[in-house]
Amino acid sequence: MMRVARLLLPCALALLIAGCQTDEMRRDFVAARYVQQAEKHLQELPRDTAQARAELDRAMALLPDDHDMNLRLARLYVLARDYETAAELFEALPEVGRHDRTLLAYCLLKTGRRRAGVQMGLQVIEEADRLHRAGAITRDEWALLLNDAGYLLIDGGADVDAAHNALRRAVEAFPLESPIADSWGWALAQRGELVEAAFHLERAHRHHPREDPEMLYHLGVVYSRLERIRDARRVLQRAIELDPGFEPAQKELRRLGRILLPLTLAQTPGRRTA
Fold first, then answer.
1. Same domain, residue pair 170 and 65
2. Do 196 and 139 belong together in one domain?
3. Among 34, 45, 104, 161, which residue's Cβ finds the most Cβ atoms within 10 Å?
4. Range of the domain at 128
5. CB count in 10 Å sphere of residue 172
6. 137-173: per-residue pLDDT in tens?
7. Are 152 and 109 spatial neighbours (Cβ–Cβ below 8 Å)?
8. Same domain assignment for residues 253 and 203
């Protein structure tokens, strides 16, 4: 019996290890499928952000502590607007690259850590300028970094001069690049330069290869402030059609509804206006 046990033990261990490896492979495969489905829901239109978040949560529960996968998940959580989870994943990484630091800074601003977010965004702008002067990055990458850092500061509520300066230089370098034109238009809108903002936002929308919910939202807000109510409602409704879970667009459309209702009532036949 002892000899048989000695022979069987290695076999049992081999089967156990093989079984564990099979389970790990199955787990990794299922997690990868969840991530792929989440990407699909975030990239395709209409966008299904809620489903994407659910699939990302399932993937994260299955996956081991893996740098590349956690970085991928962090980026996708930003797209899914779960900024708290994205920030946790970014901050757990031993190192975050320049472009991903703009995403982390945005998450910090969106989750109330304003000082840290502003500081990180400004650092990205300073680093981009330094590397560009040294010839260490291309003009395209420089402009992209200025755009991303400037936009995150403006959209995150940090209306700082350095962000406007960064976006102005980016749009001067690439005036027809849709994301850059959109960022600059949104920055102008925050400072009340609405006519100029509409020009750049319309240009961004016109030159973008496909309709983008966020660009439409920016344009709708500016149209609303310019009292172009019909245009505002049209583009906001389209933004929500493309991204039904886009809460800022929904909120702005509800605000327009409160403006339009008294006007509609006043124009109804048989009603007397004050």
1. yes
2. no
3. 104
4. 61-174
5. 11
6. 999 999 999 999 999 999 998 878 999 999 999 999 9
7. yes
8. yes
